Fold this protein.
Amino acid sequence: MKIQKVIPSGYCKGVVNAINIAKKTRKEYPEEPVYILGMLVHNSHVSKELENEGIITLYDEHKSKEELLDDIDEGVIIFTAHGISDAIKEKVTAKGLRYVDATCVDVLKTQNLIKERLDDGYEVIYFGKKGHPEAEAVLSISDRIHLISCKEDIDALDILNHKLFFTNQTTMSYLELSDIIAYLQEKYPSIFIQPEVCNATSSRQKAIYELKDCDLLYVVGDLRSNNTNMLKEIGLKHGIKKVLLIQTYEDIDKSDLQDVENIYVTAGASTPPELIRQVIDHLSTEAGQ
């Protein structure tokens, strides 16, 4: 049994930057409570690590970010790597709280691009995942932004403005994006297209599509991570016989290793290197290496 790590995989620059910002903020305000509004990145192990540093993650899938802020009356608020709405910034300021913005530079680039097109009179069609914090931050910019998540959403569009602009959430599948763009251009041939899948996302996806003789692909990451789920989808579309998304080495079932020769391990951009190493070490032990 041969075990190989897919290169690149794991942390991207945006995740590393967000974590460093959070830890730096904790040191700069040692006497104040420090909160992250939502999950800094979509990985529960990262949240636990930050909690050990005295940084509190404000997260409840049944509450909006506005509602999460209602009970906070002092301290410093850190905005996550996924971006934040101006309305939230205004609420934080109105409550007399300090804030630190850890938004990924690639996410900011897309947001600024959208704002420029809106200022030029465009209507924006945005390909993203409904309910994802990056998409929610973008949709808060203007009611002239239309979220699509599949081809059926394109069918339902009824936009009269002849100036149309298309872009996307930075962590979407580049393969699915190509299909969406082609379908969208059939309906709106003159639409201005500017894909914005970030390099970290596309390079990790393309590395999977270049794999040969892969019997089993483990994708290590949090179930809530969009870029991690996209890696799994890419593996399946590439025709890999078995693709399994696991959060830690403890999710590995010995039965999955039967009749398997070549195993590859990849990981989402928010997955800590330690978790990847543990998976590879565990598999190596199982293989007797």
Remarks:
- Residues 66 and 88 are 7 Å apart (CA to CA).
- The mean pLDDT is 96.
- The chain has three domains: 2-11+200-286, 13-103, 106-197.
- Residues 13-103 form a domain with the Rossmann fold fold (CATH 3.40.50.11270).
